[in-house]
Amino acid sequence: MISVEDVTKYYGETMAVDHLSFQAKPGLVTGFLGPNGSGKSTTMRVILDLDQANSGRATINGAHYRDLRFPLREVGALLDANAVSPKFTARTHLRALAASNQIPLSRVDEMLEFTGITSIATKKIADYSLGMRQRLGIAAALLGDPGVVLFDEPVNGLDPEGIRWFRGCLRSMADEGRTVLISLHLINELAQCADEVVVIGKG
Ligand SMILES: Nc1ncnc2c1ncn2[C@@H]1O[C@H](COP(=O)(O)OP(=O)(O)OP(=O)(O)O)[C@@H](O)[C@H]1O
Ligand SMILES: [Mg+2]
């Protein structure tokens, strides 16, 4: 369960999120819909404690992100597929994440296989296409087998086959009882994958 309670976030004078409240529940794909600049990414960053809210609070299974002992085992996220060191390979990146959260290293190869990037796993991330980085980001998000997952516009770089595969992924994650929050721009894309929708205007 993700719970956003009356969250407000300013960047200087700019109000990015305006008293926003919603819940994303286990077993459902919750779509997060809104135009550019409406505050979707900001809300996700607040949930993940990458940004501090000015007021209100966001919790994951009742706890603040910062209080989770092994965060990757409770919540997985893909916010920015390019936010990985280009010097690493997919395998070294995932192994480092696994080690830091006491996740068995066997999960790394499982997730490489699951996301279809085993064949490039020993190449430098610098040489990956956006779609490959997104697959790596999905692998990283699922590495700790978390009960809660957040994806910020994850399908931008995926090819049609990748999009179909990812939709199937979302459905099975929800069917396994996970809480899934996904932001998208396109309402028809949401209609194909979301059980509930949170719509945000200007914050
Ligand atoms: N680091 C930042 N510094 C200053 N302003 C920011 C920062 N991040 C976001 N903003 C502002 O906050 C508002 C919300 O931005 P946000 O990125 O959360 O929107 P979004 O819904 O994710 O948009 P998009 O659909 O384009 O990804 C915008 O007005 C944006 O300019
Ligand atoms: Mg965004």
Short summary:
The chain has helices at residues 40-47, 71-74, 90-100, 106-114, 130-142, 160-175, 187-193; strands spanning 2-11, 14-24, 29-33, 55-60, 75-78, 148-152, 179-184, 196-199.
Word description of this protein:
With 203 residues, this protein is of the alpha/beta class. The chain has a single domain, classed as P-loop containing nucleotide triphosphate hydrolases (Rossmann fold). Helices cover 33% and strands 25% of the residues. It contains seven helices and eight strands. It has helices spanning 40-47, 71-74, 90-100, 106-114, 130-142, 160-175, 187-193, and strands at 2-11, 14-24, 29-33, 55-60, 75-78, 148-152, 179-184, 196-199. The strands form two sheets. It has a five-stranded parallel β-sheet with strand order 5-6-7-3-8, sandwiched between helices. A three-stranded antiparallel β-sheet has the order 2-1-4, covered by helices on one side. β1 (2-11) and β2 (14-24) form a beta hairpin. The chain is globular, with a radius of gyration of 16 Å. The protein starts with a strand and ends with a strand. The mean pLDDT is 95. Adenosine-5'-triphosphate is lined by residues 11, 14, 16, 34, 36-42, 185.
Number of DSSP-assigned strands: 8
Q: How much helix, percentage-wise, in residues?
A: 25-40%
- Residue-averaged pLDDT, rounded? 95
Distance between the termini: 21 Å
Largest sheet: 5 strands, parallel
In the CATH hierarchy, the third-tier topology is known as Rossmann fold
Q: How many distinct domains?
A: 1
Helices and strands, in N-to-C order?
Answer: EEEHEHEHHHEHEHE
Low-confidence stretches: none
Q: Name the bound molecules.
A: adenosine-5'-triphosphate, magnesium ion
Superfamily (CATH H level) name: P-loop containing nucleotide triphosphate hydrolases
Tertiary shape = globular
